[in-house]
Prior knowledge:
It is a single chain. With 78 residues, this protein is of the alpha+beta class. The protein has one helix at 67-77, and strands at residues 3-7, 13-17, 35-36, 40-42, 45-46, 50-51, 57-58, 64-65. A two-stranded antiparallel ribbon has the order 1-2. Strands 3-6 form a two-stranded antiparallel ribbon. The longest helix is centred in the last third of the chain and has 11 residues, at 67-77. 19% of the residues are buried. The model has no long low-confidence stretch (mean pLDDT 88).
Amino acid sequence: MPCLPMDMPGGSSAILCTRTRRRRCHDCGQLGATLLCDGPVAVGKTCDRPICGSCATTDGPDRDYCRACAADWPRRQA
């Protein structure tokens, strides 16, 4: 659990501790999804489904797609 010291108004201080939430992969359901889908869903918007490295379809640097967006990609290119 990461903890951060914070300076509060009036000169006092506090320590804020938070949990790091582990995400489930949208495609396989396993914990540990570290990527977000980059599939376009609207102008300037991406799918953003959490996906793991095993399930992601990669198309260049920082371009990862969930199974649904990867399957839909050829239709968008036509």
